[in-house]
Amino acid sequence: MNKTDLFIYKYSLIKLKNKKKFYKLQLINCYFYSLFKIIIPSFYLFFIYLIFIFRIYSFLILIRYIWFFTGKFIVKNYFFLFFYSSFISSISSILKYSLFLLKRELFSIFLLSSRYTLQWVIKQINFCLYYWIKKWENIFFFDQSINLRLYENLERWLFEKQCRYINKYNIQRSLLWKIRYYFGPFDPYSQDFWRFGDCNSSTYLIKYKIIKV
């Protein structure tokens, strides 16, 4: 059981013990939505971004939780469905902007690649990818279709940069040599052959997957 599942379990126990707090959290969500989304839309996005930074799980779990869409509460469920769709659109816009910042950071690493070894380049890319995924891991379960599109976009962009890097420093080499030298299952437990890496130092690029639960 990971941290998110453990938190969902603990939160469900708290909710069952004291439903009044759950009602208050719903009213707080409604208040923030009406204040920030209607009056100040830009500040509403900033407010959600602060929630992600400080890892306030209760707000996110509340919207995710299945009881949130039942008709047992004070406010009609269709109102919160509208709020949920607005929240999802806000998440997607923030994720797209964070992906843009990540690409800009990775692009600067590829620009500095001429000064350093391939092993250094791969380690820097892995560091950026790991902390970007770690930062947004708490909201990746909201809408899987959005996350899949973002992952595919990032993978295509990274593969293009890797091919440019290879062709830049190995103009005279054949295509077969490039594939053997820069791609391969450097990780003995990896089943993906197209994995960018350095065969001399056995350093490879990390891979990530979205697993449907």
Automatic annotation (TrEMBL):
Keywords: Membrane, Plastid, Transmembrane, Transmembrane helix. The chain crosses the membrane at residues 21-40, 46-67, 79-100. It comes from the Eukaryota. This is Reverse trascriptase/intron maturase.
